[in-house]
Predict the 3D structure of the following.
Amino acid sequence: MHPLDSTTARRSERTLQFALFLTSVAWFLASDTVAAHAARGISERFALHAYRPLLTSIFLLFLLAVGFSILQAIARRPSSMRQVLGLPKRPTALREWELGAVLGWGLVVLAVLPMALAGTLNIQLWMRPRAFSLLILNLVTLAAAALAEEVAFRGYAYRRLIEAIGPVAATIGMSLLFALGHILNPGATWTSTLVTMLAGLMLSVAWLRTHGLWLGWGLHFAWNASIGIMFGLPVSGIIDFASIVQTRTFGQLWLTGGDYGPEGANWTVIVLLIGIAILVRITRDYAWHYTYVPIVAAGYPMEAPPPAAHVAMEQMAQQTIPAAAVSLVQILPSTPQTRSAADEPKP
């Protein structure tokens, strides 16, 4: 292929991938609206108000799976549903999820620990049977919501953007979109927007290091569940997930995050930077197994054809000299051999 043709083909491929990215973002926005309306209608029709967030996440996941599969078919890249969603089947999937969950839980503990030491937490326990049923429901809801957000922001659209503009620019762009997606949450501030962007960056690194959403899904779920359920604090400004443990904070905004929760605290910025460094460290083996591209030997053929004049001379010699004469060639020395090999050389 001519170099100019190769460059044109690469540009066309990048243009296609960027168009798929824009289409997938538009599909996500439409699906989010449809899922919210459908969940609201069903919850009101059957008096399932507590299940409304869970229904919204399930409907959104379904719509994303359908839409992204159609886009993949249009791009003529047949893939399984798991591949389209970014959840490849592999033996380390559960271990990756667990590793992400441990990391998410640890980072939340690190973020909340200074609040506890400063005495800024007012904790109340609600031990009625209703609280335990809500605990299970909230865990399932947060798991589904975390997966839906990962598929939307680090799944199909993110991969298309990587192929269009490269991993660095795509990671920055998706992290900004992730932050903008939370900017209208209750109690959002500039600090919370920065924290959310760093969280998006960390989750994007989880994808880049494993080429799957398993680790990022576990991290995202454990982060939200630890804040909202274990500590009873607001999750991105939403207080609906506290059940047994219900906590209020008072004190400096840079430490507590106020009504937005720990994700609005300045201290959480440092926690997330530490988390990114830890994430890179603990995913070395996964990065080697799942992102390593083997080096394939390549080059240019070196078998140069003989010159035309040489070929003509060989053909002429075969025609003029008998085959018996050319079957054995003896090369005589250019200097006389007047002594034996055993004789001493003369000075």
